[in-house]
Q: What sequence folds into this?
């Protein structure tokens, strides 16, 4: 997924010219435009931005104010300053305020593109990784007492986040409008991710103050329980209401001659609402061997009859299997709360 | 291999582990509480290995216990646990220990990203 580069200038014509000139680099980065500093701040909150190019003189919020805001709130996002009224003093001030580069207008699209690409490459100077679990990676960072900025992209949703480590300690995190520990929980609960490593950390203040393994464990627990975010957190006090709702739905379905699949669907909706991540429910005799073998395993180890099985096929497809003839398969997305599903069908 | 699985076996409500090759041969097993049936005495493994095929991770939930199953480079790891075991912690421990199983086979590719610059 190409990185987003935000260009901020109140000169609309210049913005359009630059966007057109940078179009040929679309395979390396996407251009996002903002007409002033306030719109730029909005864009930074709305989407993952990897780099900002800003004019100095703008109404409402000038380039220096924007630079200060980004340094404070998005320390990993580099800012390039461009101006038509440059002076050595201004350049010195811009660099002292944290600007990565200082360019005088007119700015040529190709020159700008080269600087953007060089800066984006530095963001993955420590390498990129795919097919590695965040758990294993965190362990390695801790073991090596590594200082780095880790940019994480969840492949399925395209969500992006950033984790800041100094000497193996997790200092801060950010994804969307979530920051610090809330952001860390979200990022660490992602399944199929790609990672870019930058061998430096612009953050020095520890806003998390917890052992990375403890944060990871809590993230996994929240994910398993389907309580990854406060907005979708299940309210335990509603359990009784859910059970009543479930019984009413099941009774009504049974009265209307509904199939077992309809009843399962009703149970999922009553208990998990929109968080089911349900993709399909069907019966599949091709999975009978697996269910029978699992049942036999339980018999040998005196574990009792098999109630349910949850399977993950290479992180791409998740299924809850219910013993029946043929096996009932509930296909769900990676977002589904695993432990809730297991609890629901093993009780 | 005892050392590799120690963190798992030390967890609360974990009954034991058994590592079975893709061909159904038991590579390692440890059940500190001594199970009623030895997994070496049963012939379930080849059929189970065949049924698991491309599965990366599985949970088999029974009335009284649960099996957490994880594919490794050597075969499938089966962990027998009670219903009070911390499954999230168990999965995390597996994330951490499985690379050491791979390392025992000489797989060190991912470590290169962490080598300090000289």
A:
């Amino acid at each position: 997924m190409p990185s987003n580069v935000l260009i901020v200038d109140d000169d609309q014509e210049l913005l359009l010219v630059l966007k057109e000139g940078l179009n040929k680099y679309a395979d390396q980065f996407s251009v996002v435009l903002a007409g002033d500093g306030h719109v730029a701040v909005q864009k930074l909150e709305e989407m993952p931005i990897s780099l900002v190019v800003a004019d100095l003189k703008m109404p409402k919020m000038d380039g220096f104010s924007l630079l200060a805001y980004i340094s404070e709130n998005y320390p990993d996002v580099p800012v390039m300053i461009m101006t038509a009224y440059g002076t050595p003093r201004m350049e010195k001030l811009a660099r002292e305020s944290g600007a990565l580069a200082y360019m005088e207008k007119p700015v040529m699209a190709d020159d700008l593109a080269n600087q953007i690409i060089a800066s984006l490459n530095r963001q993955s100077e420590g390498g990129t990784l795919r097919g590695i679990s965040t758990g294993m990676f965190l362990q390695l960072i801790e073991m090596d007492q590594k200082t780095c900025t880790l940019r994480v992209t969840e492949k399925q949703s395209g969500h992006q986040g950033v984790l800041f480590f100094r000497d193996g300690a997790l200092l801060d995190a950010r994804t969307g409008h979530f920051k610090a520990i809330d952001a860390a929980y979200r990022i660490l609960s992602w399944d199929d991710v790609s990672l870019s490593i930058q061998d430096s950390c612009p953050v020095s203040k520890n806003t998390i103050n917890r052992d990375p393994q403890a944060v990871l464990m809590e993230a996994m627990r929240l994910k398993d329980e389907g309580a990854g975010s406060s907005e979708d957190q299940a309210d335990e006090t509603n359990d009784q209401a859910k059970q009543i709702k479930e019984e009413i739905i099941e009774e009504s379905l049974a009265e209307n001659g509904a199939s077992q699949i309809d009843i399962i669907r009703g149970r999922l909706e009553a208990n998990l609402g929109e968080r089911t991540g349900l993709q399909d429910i069907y019966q599949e005799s091709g999975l009978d061997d697996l269910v029978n073998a699992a049942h036999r395993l339980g018999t040998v180890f005196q574990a009792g009859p098999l109630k349910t099985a949850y399977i993950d096929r290479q992180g791409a497809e998740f299924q809850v299997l219910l013993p029946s003839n043929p096996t009932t398969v509930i296909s769900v997305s990676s977002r589904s709360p695993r432990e809730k599903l297991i609890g629901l069908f093993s009780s | 291999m005892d050392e590799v699985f120690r963190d798992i076996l030390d967890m609360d409500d974990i009954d034991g582990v058994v590592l079975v090759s893709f061909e159904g041969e038991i590579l390692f097993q440890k059940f500190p509480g001594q199970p009623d049936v030895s997994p070496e005495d049963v012939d379930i493994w080849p059929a189970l290995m065949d049924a698991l095929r491309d599965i990366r991770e599985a949970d088999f939930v029974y009335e009284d216990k649960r099996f957490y199953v994880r594919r490794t480079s050597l075969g499938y790891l089966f962990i027998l646990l009670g219903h009070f075991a911390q499954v999230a912690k168990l999965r995390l421990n597996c994330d951490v220990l499985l690379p050491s199983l791979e390392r025992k086979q000489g797989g060190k590719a991912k470590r290169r990203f962490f080598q300090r610059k000289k």
